Amino acid sequence: MPHRPGKLHLNAFLMTIGHHESAWRYPESNLTGTWDVAHYQHLARVAERAKFDSIFFGDGPALQGDIRYRPVGRLDPTALLPALAVVTERIGLVATASTTYNEPYNLARRFATIDHISGGRAGWNIVTTAGSDAAQNFGLDEVPEHRHRYERAAEFVDVCLQLWDSWEDDFLIGDREKGRFADGDKIHRIDHEGRFFRVRGPLNVPRTPQGHPLLVQAGSSEDGREFAAQYAEAVFTAQQTLAEGQAFYADLKRRIAAFGRKPGLVKILPGIVPVLGGTEEEARRRESELAELQVPAYGLKQLSGLIGAELTEADLDRPLPPVGDVTAVRGMQSRFALVTDLARRENLTVRQLLSRLGGGRGHRTFTGTPEQVAETIEEWFTQGAADGFNVMPPLLPSGLEAFAEHVVPILQRRGLFRTEYEGTTLRDHYGLPRPENRFAARRAAGGQVAAAAPAR
Amino acid sequence: MPHRPGKLHLNAFLMTIGHHESAWRYPESNLTGTWDVAHYQHLARVAERAKFDSIFFGDGPALQGDIRYRPVGRLDPTALLPALAVVTERIGLVATASTTYNEPYNLARRFATIDHISGGRAGWNIVTTAGSDAAQNFGLDEVPEHRHRYERAAEFVDVCLQLWDSWEDDFLIGDREKGRFADGDKIHRIDHEGRFFRVRGPLNVPRTPQGHPLLVQAGSSEDGREFAAQYAEAVFTAQQTLAEGQAFYADLKRRIAAFGRKPGLVKILPGIVPVLGGTEEEARRRESELAELQVPAYGLKQLSGLIGAELTEADLDRPLPPVGDVTAVRGMQSRFALVTDLARRENLTVRQLLSRLGGGRGHRTFTGTPEQVAETIEEWFTQGAADGFNVMPPLLPSGLEAFAEHVVPILQRRGLFRTEYEGTTLRDHYGLPRPENRFAARRAAGGQVAAAAPAR
């Protein structure tokens, strides 16, 4: 499927002081940067100067990863984004939040607030949260099973979409003389009653500059793809090879069409870990150096969590032991498949596998000169594997600064990437329209719409 | 009980574009200010220039109040505070959040994040949320009963306190050479199992600059007072007369002592609505003008909600009809008592009562010249009715600007209020110590402390 070259999209995935496990061991690292708003403000400004579409934070409500060997834990990204919104002007701001451990009214409202504060730059990466450590912070023994989580997620998003539309855009009357502030007929209860949620509405925040925050999704399992095809406007994914990227891209665009949506209105962004050097040799040296600084005990624990099998005693210099079947995985099914396929395909020892996962936990590492990295980006973009990329610098801030300084200008010179923002909202950057308000649409179609205020 | 005069505390209670129902009807009002971060940034800066201890936002997860007659609804204050934190330097930042409609892990983490982002200036006003409109946004038909809500609140706060201590302050090793980032023995599971919550921990955010956010409480019912006496570090309250203020103050300080806490370490701040004028006559005129601009339909609905009885058809020019007994009130018991006492004591017609409630919903209105208002503040402060005040300007920003410009300097000249911040955290401003970490204390006492990391 040939891809019509146009503008590609770049999202900066910001994680602690770098995506690579070894980032903190470099002398340049800010050991407490993970919890320092100034660190993230700097990163947001660097990404904005380079005209990135957006910055993005992953999240999970648990201390995941072994802090003895690496800075883990994170600030609540929904509280961090507002602090970044007011020191930036154009860049989009995407935070992850879980549909399994939140209530839709609270989360719809929080993201609406961020969209208001940022003037229309908010995005929500919708996750269902794998892992028993999160479950056990919310009264459960084990994470709910995969299908159940996705069913709840679908209803959760349905409720949010209704709440975000519960105020029509033109609710304001503002007649000081007559004492009429708002048109009560344009603010609506939603009276949702579903399997998981009963929510009356309306939201207590007006419709936002973007209509609603951009909906992002990042799970690539069967359930995840169906969910993305139905709801997502941008998709983050982990793909190791161009062929896998193309297959995923084609599959997801097909599913999107099957839901009656325009495939072009959903942007697919594989993750890449750029390891840059002035020469290819220097870049390779940097890659090896990062691998050598990994602590195997950390990687084995992460790998155990990733594929749901106990591997902390595994022999580092032998192949990955048998680890069961994807259908039994309660957690991250697509990541399980990616990792076991990678190990099998390239016949990697456990140590080699840990090294491959140390930077991007399954995302593709692009190692080379800025020219080479730009080349690969262009290849994936023009060959139908990506609408853009989720850039995951191994070290932060230096890896993002280097990408902004050396790779972005090449992409701009090749006409692949913007040199100026054209719009003001995140939807503008991704080339997505502001959604219509369902209540206003129903009214325009001559239908009945129930109003909230008079019924109170 | 004579009060030793010292420094009083001032908190600016920021609500939409003013506490008075009529605020929006003034030509100066910003009709969309309620949802505009720039409006709140301006207010935060005004309060900080005047050396207020803190600013504060009320909250409830529902559209409360009839928007046809007044700007209601509000941004999520936990998402608004970070946007204010990064444009201010010293002022404390307090947000309300409900223990009935949140999970402790999420909320403990969000407030910890705000405390990190603000460098130790976060406060949490703990509420249990009255009202069926909120309940119906969370799958319930009716709000849980008063006692039940407070029992849940107590356990909720207990869980948060444990989570906030789950990282000891000196967890960081940061040995780049040996690859040891943190001391796993200093980060703890909490393994809480209670009636309402099971939470494993640890939190995924380090201990915060303040140890934990300042705990604020604002319910003055019997349950509310007991809760405040046990947990609160600052208490907001509504008191109509000096005598009532003194009785509440003495009662709460007694209860605090009964829990083995030092009464001086809990600050009591009654709400005041300052209506200022260059002369007393001008101030009275302003007060009448505000009352004349009230829309009775709005006030009757609010009053109905406040006292849990249907009054929208009440005769405005007759006394308040009989409305039952406080013990049957599921919602705001103390506010019910305050309003019915006020109406009875002063033999008010419904219209007069609405006018008295239009500014502060039961909080005391201080009308007069800046000298007179400062005089009343000093009287309450020195006569054992208050450690400070929760200032609720009828119009925003002008009412806050006027208070800052005209009343604060008088209080400063009289030696009652600071002219400069002495510390950097909200606890510093309120003269409260940073709490000890319970795990570190246990270790210091030679006890066993379970560590989180090795058990993973």
From TrEMBL, chains A, B:
Q: Which EC number applies?
A: 1.14.13.-
Q: Which residues form the Luciferase-like domain?
A: 35-385
* Keyword terms: Flavoprotein, FMN, Monooxygenase, Oxidoreductase
Q: Which terms in the Gene Ontology molecular function aspect does this entry carry? A: monooxygenase activity; oxidoreductase activity, acting on paired donors, with incorporation or reduction of molecular oxygen
Pfam families named in the record:
Bac_luciferase (PF00296)
Its top-level enzyme class, in one word, is: oxidoreductase
InterPro entries with a match to the protein in the record: Diverse_substr_monoxygenases, Luciferase-like_dom, Luciferase-like_sf, NTA_MOA
For FMN, which residues are the binding ones?
59, 96, 146, 150, 220-221
Protein family membership: Belongs to the NtaA/SnaA/DszA monooxygenase family.
Protein name in UniProt: Monooxygenase
Instruction: Give the organism, scientific name.
Output: Sorangium cellulosum (strain So ce56)
